[in-house]
Amino acid sequence: MRAGKAMRGVAVALAGALALTACGGGDDAGDSGPAKLRMTVWSANEAHLKLFNEIADEYRKSHPDVAEIKFDPLPFDTYTTTLTTQIAGGNAPDLAWVFENSAPDFVASGALLPLDDTLKKAEGYQYEDISPATLKLWQNDGKLYAYPFSTSPFGVFVNTDMLKKAGQKTPAELIAAGQWTWDNALATAAATAANSGKAGMVIRDFDYKGWDNLSTFWTGWGAQAWSEDGKTCGFNSPEMVDAMTTLHKATFTQKALPGPGTTADFFAGDSAMTVTQISRASLLKDGGFGWDLVPLPTGPKGNYAVVGQAGLGVMKKSPHAKQAADFVAFFTNPTNSAKLAQFFPAPRQSQLTAETLAKTNPKLKPEQLQKVVIDGITNGVVKPSHSGQAELSQQVRAGLDPLWQPNADVKAVLDGVCTKIQPLLAK
Amino acid sequence: MTQTDTRVGPAAAGPAPGPARPFWTSRRRDQLAGYLFIAPQLLGSIVFVILPLILVLWYSLHEWNVLAGTFDFVGTDNYKALADDPNLGAVLRATGLFSVGLVVFNLGLALLLAVLLNQRLRGTIVFRTLFFSPVVVSLVAWTIVWGFLLQDNGGVNGLLDTVGVDGPNWLRGEGTAMVSVIVVQVFKNVGLNMVLFLAALQGVPAELYEAAEVDGASRMRQFWRITVPLISPTILLTSIITVVGSLQVFAQIAVLTQGGPGTSTTVLVYYLYQQAFQFHHFGYGATLSIVLFAIVLALTVLQWQMRKRWVFHES
Question: Which regions of chain A are under pLDDT 70?
C-alpha cells in the first residue's frame, strides 16, 4: 500500500530526527549572528540576579557580538542533576555554576573549556591576584577549568535575642572568654531550645541527608570523609567516631539540634543558631531580630574553618564558548569581583581585606568579616568532594541513615558506611 | 456478511484483463480516510511510545558519559551488570512491597468506599466529591503537604498526641517510611478507583439482589456472589491500572524520602532515575527501564490471562 509506505516513511523520518536531537549534545558550531548566552545559577535571589544582570548589561554595551546574557536559576536541591540532564538533552548552557562536590567530575571529564589563557590575557585582569589555594579544586594538568567564583567560609549565625532571653552567654562573650567551643555552643543551643521551645543549633542544608555539610562539624575533630588521595574511607576513623558520637548525643540526648524530620529556619526565627555561609546573610530581614555572625566553634583539634566553593565554567561544546569565556573574564575582573563579593567572597587576595569587604557587605561588621571570611578563606578546608560524588553521596546518605535513631551504635554504623563506599573510593 | 460491496466495482473482483483500472478508486479513498483518522494517534504512539522504547533499548547497549560527551557501544555489559548490582535485590523488594501494598489498600478501600457511597443516604454526593477531590490536586503539591504532615512534629503526630499516642517519625523509620508513602499514594488516587467501582455497582441489576433476598442470602453472601462477579471487569481494569501505576511511582519517593532511610523506599523507577540522572550512568539507567518495562508487560499479560478464570463477563 502506498499510503502505508508513506506512513512508514514519516515514522522513520521522525525517528531519525528525534535520535539526532537526543544525541546532538547541542553542538551548534555553525551558529552565526550575535550570541545569546545562558548561564545556569543555583540562586533565584532577586538581589543576586539584579547584580548579575547589571554586570551583564554593562558587558553588552561594549560587546555587540553578544545579544543577550540570561541567568537561568535552577533549584538548589537538584541543581547538578538538572544541569547534567540539560547537557544530556542537548540543551547545555553556555556557562555553568558548578558546586565543589561535583568539581572533580566536571573538571576531569573535559566538559569545560580551559579558562586560564583567556583570563590572563584580559586587560587589567590581574590573574596572579587570585589566591592559588582557591584554584586547586578547579585545575587539571595545570589548566584552570573554572573560576573559583565563590569561596565562602561557613560561620555561625546567632539569634542574640533568643539567647539573651534564655539567659545564655552570647557567642561573642564566649569568644572573649576563650570559651567558644563546640561543647559550649551545643550546651548553649540546648538550653536556648529548652527555654524557647524552638530549635537550638541547625546545620543548614544538612537535614539528615546532606551529610557533606557535617564537615563543618567533624573537621573540628580532625576527621575527614576520606583520605587526601581519596582512596581510603575516613568515616570509621577514631576522630570521626568521636565527632559523630558528640553529634548524636547533641541531637538525641541534649536536644541541641532538632531531630530528623523537623524543619527549623534560622532566618525565619525558628532556631537559636545556624551553621551556614555568609551568602545567606541576604536572608536576614531588617528589624527582624538581633543577630551576630561568629566563626565555627573550636573543636578538640583547635580552631578550624570550612569553606564551600563554587566555580564558574564555560561548556566546551557551547557554540559561543569564546564569547562565554570572554564574559567570564569581564564578570570576574577586579571591579566586578569587588561588587560580587558582597554575596560571594572573591578569591582575589587584594580584596580579602575587612575594609574592602565591608564596603559591599553592609550587614556585616569588619570584625565579622575578618574572623569569619578572611581567616576562613585563608585557613579553611573545602567541603568533601570526589569523582563520582553523586553515587558516593547517595551511598553515604543511605549508610548514615541508621545513625539518626536514638539508640544507634555509632561505630557500627560508621563501619557500615565504609563498607559501602570503600569499593567506590578504590575505583 | 454476504452482501456484495458495490462501491468497489471491478477492483473487488480481482485482476481482470482489459483497460487499466483508475488509481483513485473508492476503496483507496476509504483506506486513505481510515489512515487519516488514525494518523494522529498513530503518530503520537510512534513518537512518544515506540520510538522512545527503541531509543531506550539502544541506549541500554551503550555507555554514555554525558560530561565527557562519549557514547560507546558496550553490548550486553549493562545487562550483565544487573547481576552484580548489590542494590538491585533491595530495590526489587521495595518495588514489590510498594506495589502489593498499594494495590491491596487502594482497591480494598476504593471498593469499600464505593459500596458505602452507593447507598441512598443524605450527603453521599458530598463524600463522593470529598474522596475524589485529591485526584485533581497536583501530585507534587499533595506530596509536599503530606511531607509536612508526616514530620516528627507534624500534623499526624499532633493528632495522635491529642489521644495520648506518641507517633513515630514516619518518614525516617525503615518500616514506617514505606507505609507512609503507600498511604499518601492511596489517598491521592483512591477516588478514581472509587468512581469506577461506583459506576460498576450502579450497573448491577437490582432484581438480582431482590431475588437473593427472597432466597434468604445474607448481605455478605450477596456481595461475594452477585456484586463481585458482576463488577469483576471493573476490578480487572482498576487492578491493571493500579499495578502499572504502582510500578511507576516516582514523585512521592523523590519528595518524601529520596529512597531512604537506607534503601527501604528505593523503588525501581527512583533507582533508575538515580543511576541515569544523578550518577550519570545513562546506559545502566536505560537497562533498568527495560527491566521495568518487562516487569510491567509480564504483570499486565498475567492479569489479562487470569481474567479468564475470574472475570464474569468473559467466556
Answer: 1-32, 360
Q: What is the pLDDT of residue A254?
A: 96
Distance of alpha carbon A54 from alpha carbon A34, whole angstroms: 19
Report helix, strand or coil for A27: coil
pLDDT value of position A2: 46
Residue B31: closest C-alpha in chain A = A3
> Which residue of chain A has the CA closest to B276?
A85
Residue B30 cell numbers, joined:
476509504
Strands (E), chain B: 62-65, 70-73
Residue among A220, A234, A205 nearest A380 (CA): A220
Pick from B47, B65, B66 the residue to mutate for testing the A interface (most A CBs within 10 Å).
B66
A24–B contact, CB cutoff 8 A: no
Q: How far apart are CA B287 and CA B293, in angstroms?
A: 10
d(CA A265, CA A157): 12
| Per-residue pLDDT, A1 | 41
Yes or no, beta carbons of A404 and B35 under 8 Å apart: no
Does B169 contact A397 at a Cβ distance shorter than 8 Å? no
Per-residue pLDDT reduced to its tens digit, A150-187: 888 899 999 999 999 999 999 999 999 999 999 999 99
Q: What is the pLDDT of residues B249-286, one digit of tens each?
A: 999 999 999 998 999 999 999 999 999 988 889 999 99
Q: Which residues of B232-265 are buried (b: 16+ CB within 10 A; e: fewer)?
A: bbbbbbbbbbbbebbbebebbbbbbbbbbbbbbb
First-to-last CA distance in chain A?
56
- Whether A233 contacts A422, CB under 8 Å: yes
Q: Look-up: residue for cell 523509620? A: B173
d(C-alpha A240, C-alpha A211), whole Å: 13
Cβ–Cβ contact B31 with A under 8 A: yes
The model's pLDDT over B95-136, given as tens digits with 9 standing for 90+, comes to 999 999 999 999 999 999 999 998 887 888 888 888 899 999
For chains A and B, CB pairs below 8 A equal: 98
How far is the CA of B28 from the CAs of B10, B16, B99, in angstroms? 13, 18, 48
Q: What grid cell was written down for B93?
A: 523488594
Residue of B45, B49, B67 to mutate, testing the A interface (most A Cβ within 10 Å of its Cβ): B67
The B residues from 269 to 308 touching A (CB cutoff 8 Å) are: 274, 277-280, 282
Residues A381, A382, A388: CA angle, nearest 5 degrees: 140
Chain A: give the shortest CA distance to residue B180, in Å: 13
Q: Would you state the pLDDT for residue A351?
A: 86
